[in-house]
Design goal:
Layout: H1 25-41, H2 44-60, H3 64-69, H4 73-80, H5 85-92, H6 94-111, H7 117-145, H8 150-179, H9 182-187, H10 190-210, H11 221-225, H12 228-257, H13 262-287, H14 293-313, H15 319-330, H16 332-342, H17 347-365, H18 367-379, H19 383-403
Helix pairs in contact: 1-7, 1-8, 1-10, 2-8, 2-12, 2-13, 4-7, 4-17, 5-6, 6-7, 6-10, 7-16, 7-17, 8-13, 8-16, 12-13, 12-14, 12-15, 12-16, 12-17, 12-18, 12-19, 13-14, 13-15, 13-16, 14-15, 14-19, 18-19
Length: 418
């Protein structure tokens, strides 16, 4: 049953018939395993690099422009590569689109083993393009295969995503030191990509045998953006992405530049990711309850503002305070994904909404890590960059307030066209 943004049950949109209606138990289990493996990958490639940015710059010798561009690449890929997901899913199906994405992800992560700036940039572009397709397609995959268990599967997906991010953030520096190269420390996470690729094959093989093309599956995205729901989801996704990647990309770097060792900064970064795992699950459980979505989003956005303020004003001996508060703030992501998965009249409309919200959201969110890096290079301090992030946190809280208004209905949107 769909829920309104206030947690009030609505009449659900009828899912289009799909592979989920004919699945055997073994395929159901394989799908759950695949969700776990994909989730583990979707942030590990980002947080592993973030923890190693300082070491990578020291070893490869690139300048401040490349240092500012690197954390921006994932968001630009999410914006532009993600735009093609709706078309790709319509042509070959959601499952095969995810398979293509996993091939790109694994290949890109392994390319980063080559210790050159060019390989680092190229591998990041390829891997993040794969992540872009997964980002957009996963809410539709969950709706198609697990329509009755959307909060549960969204929670599992985001839990493993945060878990993979936590593991990569905490382990990347020690792993790179053990392997003797930050480039090899990055490439190690390609093993997770290969595992996800192999784990998803049974789902793809099953859906390939049972796939029937839906002739009315195309949904125009721009008219969807002009609806209140489409605009507010896109706006909320933009601000949470701006903050999440602005903080994740530079959190460890800020601590290192303020005097902590790279290993200690990586551990604090790992703590932030660890907290985000529990916070995401708790906020998702809270937000799924009647009338509690708005408080859950207030908690997340307010914690983000407080975490940035702690990073800005407290000494590094209290870095854990900022890590914990920022981790709670990152818990807003599964709430937004749940809203996307529950919205629209069909899987195709959900895919279109996910595409437009994530593509435009990530495009503007790219200004977060890039702007933080450029402002720091220009001023030599973290005051102005962190102040910018706090302002974005206030805008996020306003957007959350409007999105969870009783005037915003999850079934609003343009109809699909042939």
């Amino acid at each position: 049953m769909a829920i309104s943004t206030q947690g009030i049950p609505e009449t659900p949109a009828t899912p289009s018939p799909g592979p989920g209606a004919r699945r055997r138990p073994v395929v159901i289990v394989a799908g759950i395993v695949a969700v776990v493996l994909i989730g583990l990958n979707l942030r590990a490639g980002i947080t592993s690099a973030a923890a190693l940015f300082h070491d990578l710059q020291q070893v490869l010798g690139y300048g401040p422009v490349v240092a500012s561009v690197l954390p921006t690449i994932p968001l630009l890929c999410f914006a532009f590569a993600g735009l093609g997901t709706s078309w790709l899913a319509r042509r070959i199906g959601v499952e095969k689109a995810i398979l293509v994405a996993l091939i790109l992800l694994a290949a890109g992560l392994l390319i980063r083993a080559v210790p050159t700036t060019g390989a680092l940039l190229a591998g990041t572009v390829v891997a993040m393009s794969g992540l872009a397709v997964c980002n957009v397609a996963m809410p539709s995959f969950i709706r198609e295969h697990y329509a009755a268990k959307t909060p549960l599967m969204t929670g599992l997906y985001t839990f493993t995503m945060s878990g993979g991010a936590t593991l990569a953030a905490a382990a990347s520096v020690p792993l790179a030191q053990q392997l003797g190269s930050p480039s090899l420390g990055l490439a190690f996470w390609g093993i997770l990509g290969v595992a996800a690729l192999l784990g998803f094959l049974p789902v793809v093989l099953h859906t390939h045998r049972n796939f029937t093309r839906n002739s009315s599956a195309r949904v125009p995205m721009l008219p969807l953006l002009r609806t209140r729901l489409g605009f507010l989801i896109t706006t909320t996704f933009t601000f949470q992405g701006f903050l999440a990647y602005g903080v994740m990309s530079w959190f460890a770097y800020v601590l290192t530049s303020e005097g902590l060792s790279a290993a200690e900064s990586g551990l604090q970064f790992g703590l932030m990711q660890f907290v985000s795992v529990a916070a995401g699950m708790l906020l998702l459980a809270l937000g799924s309850r009647r009338g509690m979505l708005r408080p859950a989003m207030y908690i997340a956005s307010g914690s983000t503002i407080a975490g940035i303020a702690a990073l800005m004003f407290l000494p590094t001996t209290f870095a854990a305070v900022s890590a914990v508060l920022s981790g709670v703030g990152l818990g807003i992501f599964p709430l937004v994904l749940m809203i996307i998965s529950r919205s629209g009249r069909s899987t195709a409309e959900t895919t279109a909404l996910s595409t437009i919200a994530q593509s435009l959201g990530y495009l503007f969110a790219a200004l977060g890590p890039f702007g933080v890096g450029i402002l720091h290079s220009a001023t030599g301090t973290w005051t102005l960059p962190l102040g910018l992030l706090m302002l974005a946190g206030a805008a996020l809280m306003v957007s959350c307030h409007l999105l969870t208004s009783k005037h915003t209905r999850l079934t609003a949107g343009p109809r699909s066209v042939a």
